[in-house]
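Reposting from the mailing list since nobody answered there.

I have sequence plus structure tokens for a pair of proteins and want to know whether others read the tokens the same way I do. The first protein:
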Amino acid sequence: MTAFRGLLAYPITPLTDDDAPDLDALGRLVRDAAGAGVDGVVVLASSGAGVTFDPDERDAVVRAAVAAGSTGPTAVPVHVAVSGASTREVLARSRAARDAGADGLVLAPFSYLPLDEAEVVALFEAVAADVDLPVCFYNRSVQTAYDLTPGALAHLARTTNVVAVKDAASTPARPGGRVAELRAATDGLGVSVGLSGDVPLVRGAEPADAWHTGLAALVPAEYVALRRARTARAVPDARVARWLHDLTAALADLRPVSGFHALATLLGVPTAPPRGPSLPVPPDGVARLREVVARRPGG
């Protein structure tokens, strides 16, 4: 599988009761996702609350994920999100990920103030000059106030180790056709154009080279079945599709990372709530998730 193609699962970073990364629980998530048939795993991204961990914790998480992804009957590449508020921080995280055995990097460019295109390009050029790993450009336009242009993506694909883009499947202001636009700009450059956003992915986003999703790390069997059906242009299993529709609807009403931690607990994955300032899901939200989980096909 070429880097950053297919179904990419973004697990939470489970926490023990004393607020430390639970490496055994993380390893289980990675192995279960690999066994279900995902095409890759990305740790320490938004779902994994990567910016809340110090360098030693991040290193332990990456090493645990790499070990889990490379063992058992199925092996998957493990990529690492390395976003930081400064180029120095991004480079340190990129080198640490490489040294811990990562197969690739995922990078969302951000800083305290919104970056312009020249600053974004300079960041990715600095990473390419320092670390020889494939990079996925994580375009978080709503959060960072920078929206990747097709021209900038084509430039980075030609001059750096950017081989993929993770773009929002939908935003309030963006019309359809974004995947085709990015593909046209990078024709012949081998760029994987991927989408994220569980609600639009489950409900019928435009075809893309990759799906990037945190939910796939918690319910990988169902997500793999849906992705394979969509890729084959077949009709998905109606029970699975309906259940994922209901689950994404319930999660959409919750804070993202907190919702994933609550869902993980209901699915039997041991974890405390995410680190503050994220707050635990309130009881009514947990009850709604519990009702949906109880209807899991084959559960």
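The second protein, same order (residues first, tokens after):
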Amino acid sequence: MRRARLWTASLAVTVPLLIAIAGPWFAVSAPRERQVPFGPSSWSPFGTDRFGRDVLAAALTGGRGFLLVAAVTVLGAYLVGFTIGVAAAAAPRGWIEELLMRPIDVLLCLPSLLIVMVAAMRSQGSAVAISIAIGVALIAPIARFVRMAADGVVRGPVMDALRMQGESRGYRYGGYAARALARPLAADVGVRFTAAMYFLASANFLGLGFDTSSTDWAVSVAANKDALTVAPWSVALPATLIVLLAVGVNLLCDELLADPAAVAARDLARAGTRRRGSR
């Protein structure tokens, strides 16, 4: 069962990623001339969008920018949040931790989507400004999570043992901390990536993100929603790709980073339930 879940999650991630990365190369063969809006297409069975562009060709070219902005945003936010969280957990004085974490608490109180909307309106939909705003919105929860995860590692018995042994090499501390934090932080990265996609899709859906004439997946969903009953694929195809990627990333993180003992116990319990049901 775990193998089946891994294959399902991998497929859910691979399909939108391949479309986003390699899609523009396949879309070059699509017709350049505009066709009838929300009508049949001469290139694919998915029909056309509001501009008369082929829906499949638009989906093939609309994912690269969307995913690139989301990935760069999460990377930048995690670099800042990780630094703050680890520094707060390892602070030798309580006032240093307070100085680092209290501004984070204030930032955590601000509605994340509001930050993104203000940045989008002030910058007239600049992708850079929106990416920075999403990163700022993600820093607070990342710093909080890292501080919580690192506190038990930095102040744990292993670190105390290294100090008692007179260990002075910093890489020994860093190596242990990296191994102890790898699993929870990797799982959290998947959650933050999904959150970044949510904020970016929300901004584009509200018309505050990329150019409304672009083929971006979220823009396509927003721009074609009025013709959902007439040309359903113009909305369903890009929306499905976004959902597949969001669900697939989290499922894949759950399966790859799950505690082996917990996974074995879960599978054993499910097997017992099935046997009792068969009786």
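Reply #1 (J.P.):
I read it the same way you do. The radius of gyration is 23 Å.
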